[in-house]
Amino acid sequence: MEYAKIPPRSSSKPTPFQVSIPDSQVARLHRHLDLAELAPETYENLKEDESVGISHAWLSNALHSWKTQYDWRQTEKRINSFPNYQVSVTDEVGTDYSIHIVALFSEKPDAIPIVMLHGWPGSFMEFLPCLDIVRNRYTPSTLPYHIIVPSIVGYCFSTGPSTKSNTTVADVAWVINSMMVGLGFQDGYIAQGGDIGSYLARILGSKFEECKAVHLNFCGMQKPQNADATSEALSKIEEAALEQSRLSSMTEFAYALEHATRPATIGFVLSSNPVALLSWIGEKYLAWSHQNPPLSVILDAASVYWFTKTIARCLYPYRDVLRSPYHDLPEYFIHKPLGFSSFPYEITPTPISWVRSTGNLAWSRTHSEGGHFAALETPDAFLRDIEDFVASVWAP
């Protein structure tokens, strides 16, 4: 397979991996779907604007499509068209992890390593449109980057967090850094992140020498104390985005408090029924995107979470971030080059001047379209940002 030549300095010996959900699990999902009953029509779920949650019409159509049209095997085929691996990592206290990655390895000796980090309710699949562009643009011998897209701990095909002790986002950052070092990138790499991945990227950039630069497309934070004193005026796009953020703060974050305060309960609820899972995460794909993504994208997201029993395993970051809002904490100020891409339909858009207060902001760009799932929604613009940022900060 192309783009599958492991870097010669790798010490971790990644194991090639193929996604192959057993037929019995696919059949079991369909039995669940066949038996599913939707809630009765109500004033709330008949609202077509979905201002109070997922609509009856959308969920009914999505369920019908999941049962009769959606083909998981085609999704598997697409995933497996990329090099997939399992990478073994042992953390500081001796816990063993197997981290799933999708990777495009370059054959160039001076290729720049980039790790791209997803969040919730996303997965490694968010970045596949970008990887498609990369494959079409470069050959293995001309690709200027090693692109590594892990399933972070607890997500999809990676090991879950410890069942014996609490796992923090900082713990997972340690695992990601060790994974990158084991892949042979001990001399340096760039971290990119959105959503939960943005916290991981910030920790990598502020606490690990091997991470040389950080690019974010999410930086949820409180207004800095000196924000009003800055001479940097907000753009009209930023002003509109902040108003959107103010409104969203009153309607969009009940889920996060549930994840942070009662993860055991919501984990049981969403693990028991695929339609409940589809409702919970489908709502976010609709609400947090600039334009509604294709239904197939949302069914991919629900299916991979369901088959891998992700939802109960992946909620631990919320409890941690509620207590440790990394983007607001001075100890996680990024002294290395920091880049930021601002997408106006991000659920919590952040003015570039605010982001500047959290690190050595060396590059930024404001977009007129795109939302929370930038790599998925606007892959061309997202990838262009990454390439432009890397070109501006990486010294050969």
Automatic annotation (TrEMBL):
<dbReference type="InterPro" id="IPR010497">
    <property type="entry name" value="Epoxide_hydro_N"/>
</dbReference>
<dbReference type="InterPro" id="IPR016292">
    <property type="entry name" value="Epoxide_hydrolase"/>
</dbReference>
<feature type="active site" description="Proton donor">
    <location>
        <position position="318"/>
    </location>
</feature>
<dbReference type="GO" id="GO:0097176">
    <property type="term" value="P:epoxide metabolic process"/>
</dbReference>
<comment type="similarity">
    <text>Belongs to the peptidase S33 family.</text>
</comment>
<protein>
    <submittedName>
        <fullName>Epoxide hydrolase</fullName>
    </submittedName>
</protein>
<keyword id="KW-0378">Hydrolase</keyword>
<dbReference type="Pfam" id="PF06441">
    <property type="entry name" value="EHN"/>
</dbReference>
<dbReference type="InterPro" id="IPR000639">
    <property type="entry name" value="Epox_hydrolase-like"/>
</dbReference>
<feature type="active site" description="Proton acceptor">
    <location>
        <position position="372"/>
    </location>
</feature>
<feature type="active site" description="Nucleophile">
    <location>
        <position position="195"/>
    </location>
</feature>
<dbReference type="GO" id="GO:0004301">
    <property type="term" value="F:epoxide hydrolase activity"/>
</dbReference>
<feature type="domain" description="Epoxide hydrolase N-terminal">
    <location>
        <begin position="15"/>
        <end position="127"/>
    </location>
</feature>
<dbReference type="InterPro" id="IPR029058">
    <property type="entry name" value="AB_hydrolase_fold"/>
</dbReference>
